[in-house]
Design brief:
The structure is a single chain. With 405 residues, the protein is α/β, with parallel strands linked by helices. The chain folds into three domains: 3-73, no CATH class; 78-112; 122-401, Alkaline Phosphatase, subunit A (3-Layer(aba) Sandwich). Helices cover 31% and strands 22% of the residues. The protein contains 13 helices and 18 strands. The strands form six sheets. Strands 10-9-13-7-14-18 form a six-stranded mixed β-sheet, covered by helices on one side. Helix 2 packs antiparallel against helix 3 and helix 8 packs parallel to helix 11 (306-328). The longest helix is centred in the N-terminal third of the chain and has 23 residues, at 96-118. The radius of gyration is 21 Å and the shape is globular. 42% of the residues are buried. InterPro entries: Alkaline_phosphatase_core_sf (IPR017850). Residues 382-394 have a biased composition (Acidic residues). Residues 375-405 are annotated as: Disordered.
Length: 405
């Protein structure tokens, strides 16, 4: 009897519901993350009963990939956009400007994504020469400049416009099949969970409904990389040295990324190494208060000040730069670039965090720091490999813990 693991989104006021459904010859373990946003449904196993089981939700397409069937719930749907827009306008917990702005913004996003699918905005990192590329998730240019004097290897003399203002938007364009030849020469060590949703699945289109726009992208498959290691699949006890035991929970320490990247650099024969750190992206486990662990809702509601939130952001930028320094001392790479997939908003023009399709410089402009790396051999990495297989229930919970859902 095969087990099918699934996750999908429905509209409901409750938080989380777990249920088990029996269906003829297979058991369906269905984890429903209840929220008002549309997400992708990934079902591992047989799919003969999928249309009936998914009746509560509308799906756009079914894609088969070996033993995995991917159903993309409609994020591009005019009727759903109208429904979400009406619900948003009626939400009296939000300000009137927010209630009106969101539907208009996603109309703009539909136009923006439609254009940029064919004429990408920004610079693809594969259009530049580098031996090692280090991604600092959600790193602002001004923030890196502010701490640059603390690190000899950081000099922010250049910037580029990113191809995305969110991680999945960046991956949709960066790992386009047009760059397959370069991607096949790349070892990718990533702490970013969107690799699970983008690679091999036609990209990611976001969670909120749009009236029109692209429903999928021409992205490569995971096996197209010379080597791919998805660090977010790792699971440790809270007491592990690879975890940060913070004020409001535990999160994987960036030194885990460092260790795995050093291992890949020494043991893999690929021409290029791409390392994706998750900081300074929130949550901020070292924060002194719960309001500052995930500060942007608190910042929007004015429970914390911008200065307080930004201070935590800078502290976690230093946390990851300390690890980047260790990586550069244990890696042989003549041309190294430190950059970001996107930036972060701290209230500019009413925006907080980062949102899809946003052209604001605080989200689109990213650093392009050139440096070098030389392996001193003074450090031996000890971090274990992440799990090779993770069921969809674990995927959803880990992505939510990382702040994606």
């Amino acid at each position: 009897m095969a087990d099918i693991f699934a996750a999908y989104a429905v509209e409901n006021d409750e938080k989380n519901v777990r249920s088990t459904h029996e269906c003829e010859s297979e058991r369906l373990h269905l984890y429903t993350s209840v929220r008002t946003e549309k997400q992708r449904l990934v079902v591992s196993g047989l799919d003969r009963h999928i249309p009936d089981l998914c009746a509560p939700a509308t799906y756009l397409s079914v894609k088969h990939k070996q033993d995995t069937t991917v159903l993309r719930l409609i994020a591009v749907d005019f009727t759903e956009w109208l429904s979400q827009s009406a619900s948003n306008i009626k939400d009296t917990d939000k300000t009137w400007s927010s209630r009106v702005f969101r539907p208009i913004y996603y109309l703009y996003v539909a136009c923006f994504l439609s254009l940029t699918k064919w004429w990408p905005y920004g610079t693809n990192v594969y259009d530049h020469d580098w031996d090692a590329l280090i991604i600092l998730d959600a790193c602002r240019v001004d923030a890196l400049r502010e701490v640059s004097e603390e690190y000899d290897f950081v000099s922010v003399d250049e910037t580029i416009n990113s191809v995305g203002s969110t991680s999945f938007e960046w991956m949709n364009h960066t790992f386009d099949t047009d760059y397959r030849e370069e991607i096949e020469r790349t070892a990718y060590v990533s702490g970013n969970g969107y690799t699970d949703r983008v690679l091999g699945h036609g990209g990611e289109t976001g969670h909120a409904a749009m009236p029109f726009g692209p429903s999928e992208y021409d992205v490569v498959d995971p096996e197209d990389f010379a080597y791919l290691e998805e660090l977010w699949r790792a699971e440790f006890d809270n007491s592990s040295e690879w975890m940060i035991d913070g004020n409001a929970g535990s999160w994987v320490h960036p030194k885990y990324t460092t260790d795995r990247a050093i291992e890949a650099g020494r043991e893999r024969s690929s021409d290029r190494l791409l390392v994706h750190y998750m900081y300074p992206h929130d949550p901020f486990p070292l924060a002194d208060s719960d309001d500052l662990v995930r500060p942007f809702d608190s910042l929007r509601s004015r429970d914390v000040t911008r200065a307080e939130a930004y201070r935590e952001y800078l502290d976690h930028l230093r946390l990851v730069l300390d690890e980047v320094e260790r990586l550069l001392e244990n890696l042989n790479a003549e041309d190294v670039v430190i950059t970001a997939d996107h930036g972060e908003a701290f209230g500019e023009y009413g925006f907080y965090r980062h949102v899809i399709g946003c052209p604001l410089p605080c989200m689109r402009e990213v650093p392009w720091v050139k440096t070098t790396a030389e392996d001193t051999g003074m450090y031996d990495p000890e971090a274990p490999e992440p799990e090779s297989e993770t069921d969809s229930v674990d995927v959803e919970s880990r992505l939510e813990n990382l702040g994606y859902l």
